[in-house]
Amino acid sequence: MNGRKWAGGLIRQSVFVGPALVCFALIVAVPFLLSVYYSFTEWNGISAGIEWVGLDNFRQIVLHDSDFRHAFWFTIRFSVASVVLTNALGFALALLLTQALKTRMVLRTAFFLPNVIGGLLLGFIWQFIFVKVFATLGEHTGIGFFQLPWLGDAPTAFWGIVIVSVWQGAGYLMVIYIAALNNVPKELTEAARIDGAGRLTLLRSVTVPLIMPAVTVCLFLTISWAFKMFDLNVSLTKGGPFNSTESVALNIYQEAFRNNRYGLGTAKAFVFFIVVALITVLQVTYTKKKEVEA
Fold this sequence. Notes:
Blueprint: H1 2-38, E1 41-42, E2 51-52, H2 56-63, H3 66-97, H4 104-116, H5 119-141, H6 144-147, H7 154-182, H8 186-194, H9 199-210, H10 212-227, H11 231-236, H12 248-258, H13 262-290
Antiparallel strand pairs: 1-2
């Protein structure tokens, strides 16, 4: 009987879990393993002949590919700016919209809406704003902020992409932070107020430690978003001017699909995967240690 029950349980688990495992294997696992294999080869993505080159692709990336190093440096700078500003704005909006405001539900919807718009469409909208709308406002008002060459100069193009990224992602983080703030026990905040804690002390010593699980999630999301940023990069600047705003994802795309060097492109993608995985593991490990029980 025990054997039959065990077999029946195994069959039921296979029925429920099997389709998901098959989809995961076909969509994620197999392509990942194939890309790891191709990273050690020289292949143009079209011909049947695939030449094994070992570590040559990785040597070229480390020693000779200055474009990839510049793209990585841009991606790191963009990620730091985007992660910090998106989390700061999302948390500030959550603090504001957990107050007793009559229009808070409307404001929550308005701030979340940019996240619903696709990255490419959002980028083209903001490209029109930077190039046409800001230029027109600069002509009529004379304000220097609107007269800057937002997408035509490397420093301003960098901050242009950061602005759009923060504008798109802050509303999503706001929802997560609102849920965390609503779960902070009222008894603890009231006790802290009775003990004489001011708003900043209450925020630093009570609220932030109790919402650290939400901080862990939001940091993980924004780090992955920032490092994988592609659609905004393509629609806003296409990596220009002079490749000064080319992200790693765009560099990999150009290498594989424009230059038809799939082997080198997948090698770059594998290096990129390792770096992002290490950063996210370190971030999650560090912030998990900061979490406290309510």
